[in-house]
Every structure is written in C-alpha cells, then in structure tokens.
Write a structure and sequence with these properties.
4-stranded antiparallel beta sheet, 9 helices, Alpha-Beta Plaits, single chain
C-alpha cells in the first residue's frame, strides 16, 4: 500500500479542506462506497508525524484510528470525531472557500470538527494523555466508537459534532422496533373469510397515536422537551383483490435521559396490550421485536469537563450556551461507558444536504476552545 503524503499544514481550515477532498462515504449507506480507509490513513500519518502513538481498530476496509500523545501525569481526555460521510457527488468532494465558509461534503458533518480536534490535540501542552479517536461508521451504526471504547478509556471526552459552538450537554436516546402482523388471506369479495393484517395495523397505529399524546402531555425535560413515538415505515398486502395476510410496521421511539431501552419497550407492550400476541380466533397476531436501541445522554450538572469547556468557549466567543439535541450522537456511548462528556463543534449548515458548509471562523474558534480546554483539563 502506498504511504499517504503527510501534509505540513496546521491551519485547521486548510486541513478540513484536505479532509473534505477525501472520499469517505459510508458503504453501509451507499453499497460499494469508498469508506474510511483513505481518510484514516491520512489522519494517522498526520498525527504520527506529530508524535502520536497510532492504534488501528476495526477492519482494513472500515478502520478507526486512536492516536495518543502521552503526558507525564495528569487527567486524560479523549477527543472523538467520525471520518465517514453520507453520499457525495464528485462536485461535493471538491472543497471550496467563499464568503467566510468552507463548502463540501463533510465540511459541517464533521470533517471541520475532525480537523479542529487534530490541530488542538497536536498543539496542546499538558501533563495528561490526549487521546484522539477518529472513527468509522457513525452515520450508520457507530461501530467505530463502540470498538474504541472496548480498548480505551479516559477521564473525560469531547465529541466534536457540529453544534454552532454551543455546548450540547444532553440528547435523546432512540429505539427502533418492528411489529410483524399475521392475518389470513381471502378473496376481496368475501373479506369476512379472512383476517385483515392491514386493519390490525391500523388499530396498532391508533394505539401508538394515543401513546404519543400521552408522552406530549407528560413532564418535559428542560432541554429536550418530550419523548416521541411514530411509525416510520409500513408494508403489507399482496394485491388489490386479496385480504392482506401480513403487514409490518417499524416504530421509532425517541426517549429522554432516565428512560432505558427496556423501559420504553415495556411501555410499548403495555400501550399495545391485547393487540400483541392475541390468541383469540379470527384475530390477527402481532409480535413486537426490538431492532436497535441507544441510550440518551445527559452530562452531570457540575461536570468538570463541561465547566472547563464552558469557560473557554466564553473566553473565545463571548458566549457559552448549553443546549440539548433531539438527535443522537456518539456521546451516548461515552456516557454509557461512564466517561463524562459533552458535544461541541463548528457552526454552519447543510448536514446531509446538497450544499454543506461550515464557517471558517468557527473552525478556528473551535480549535482554540479545544486547545485551551485540553491544556486546563489535563494540567
């Protein structure tokens, strides 16, 4: 394998542009896509050239890298960024700067954050270990961060997902479920001879609507509001002239800190009640199965890493807003591993959209916030 050329730049905007130019579309989202190898090789070479110890995790075609700068003694911090992106056209892989913005696939989500944390980690002077985790697969299954946390830990972590330079200290968890419904086929002219799986699906959807109203009427989290439930996909039936013998729903439940995947599954089962696994004759049977679940995240009220980053965000930008996100990030995995963490990243827009961008000022400000925070926390 040809060794990647090591760029000499320590300008985070220029480094972000180089990363944007590397195709790292997640192949779990786009079959046959390039994946993370080239981006991982580039970042590993850049960090190794600056004295970091490099560990590769995952597979050759879906690598994550962990780069460690050892200190003589002090608290350790892990900086997390993902290398993968969603689908990209050739034009989106050509970075462009204009009007104070960097454009291109991943400029916002999240190669500018990756560049900022790399430069900050390289420039920081501190006593503790600085651990840079650049991971695969965040856009699909978060396999990269899961693998990192099997092998590495730290006293705190910062995830550099885009946040407008505000501190994300909480986000919802999510769980996806499948409801499989079995009925009995019959000719459409004699529906009374069949058991209509689609009609049963409609009853389930009404029960989920009622659950959604109950969630919206309950206590609200101060940063995250209420949990939600919705049907995200539905399929069923065979043709226009046949009573549907089967139907399938996928259900998404977004939930709050303090709730667990097991608890929200039990809540669903109670809400659906006799609509699940009915043994009554001439009644459709429905089964509920959990597909995937990720816990919610909330930083402790007086977390040391949050306080440190808050001070330096205020010093650099004049503001230190703390907020919650409706969507999930890999911070949830750090919290589940018992590592205090928060999310802070660049300002911009267009995540997963045709035109994606980050402000060059925020890239530089994020780098400075991270550098100062690393130096204080790891002193």
């Amino acid at each position: 394998m040809t060794e990647p050329a090591v760029t000499v730049t320590t300008d985070p905007v220029a480094l972000a542009a180089e990363l944007v130019a590397i195709d790292s579309v997640n192949p779990s989202l786009v079959p046959g896509a390039a994946g993370e190898p080239e981006a991982a090789d580039f970042c590993a070479a850049w960090l190794a050239d600056r004295g970091f110890e490099i560990t590769r995790l995952g597979t050759a075609d879906r690598p994550s890298i962990v780069a460690v700068k050892r200190g003589p003694g002090g608290r350790s911090v892990m900086l997390n960024g993902h290398l993968d992106t969603v689908a990209a056209t050739p034009a989106q892989l050509v970075p462009a700067q204009r009007d104070g913005r960097l454009y291109g696939r991943g400029a916002f989500d999240m190669k500018s954050g990756v560049a900022a944390l790399m430069v900050a980690a390289a420039e920081a002077q501190c006593a503790g270990d600085v651990i840079v985790a650049l991971v695969a697969d965040e856009e699909f299954g978060s396999a990269g961060t899961e693998r990192v946390l099997e092998k590495f830990t730290a006293d705190a972590a910062i995830v550099a997902e885009p946040s407008g330079l505000e501190l994300t200290v909480a986000h919802r968890g999510f769980a996806w479920f499948e409801v499989a419904i079995s009925g009995r086929a019959a000719h459409g002219s004699q529906p009374e001879l069949g058991v209509d799986a689609i009609a049963h699906a409609a009853q389930i959807m009404r029960a989920l609507d009622e659950l959604g109203r109950s969630l919206a009427a309950g206590p609200a989290h101060p940063l995250l509001g209420h949990g939600t439930v919705r049907v995200s996909t539905i399929s069923g039936g065979v043709d226009a002239a046949t009573v549907a013998p089967s139907a399938t729903l996928t259900v998404e439940r977004r939930f709050l800190p303090g709730e667990s995947p097991d608890a929200v599954e039990e809540e669903l089962r109670l809400a659906l009640g006799a609509l699940l696994d009915s043994s009554a004759p001439d009644t459709a049977r429905a089964t509920l199965s959990r597909l995937v679940a990720r816990r919610a995240f909330e930083a402790a009220p007086h977390s040391a890493i949050v306080d440190v980053v808050s001070r330096h965000a205020h010093a650099v930008t004049g503001s230190a807003v703390r907020r919650g996100e409706p969507f999930w990030t890999d911070a949830g995995l750090y919290a589940e591993a018992g590592i205090p963490c928060l999310v802070i990243g660049v300002d911009g827009g267009g995540a997963h959209a045709d035109e994606e961008w980050a402000t060059t000022e925020s890239i530089r400000e994020l780098t400075e916030i991270l550098r100062r925070s690393i130096e204080e926390f790891c002193a």
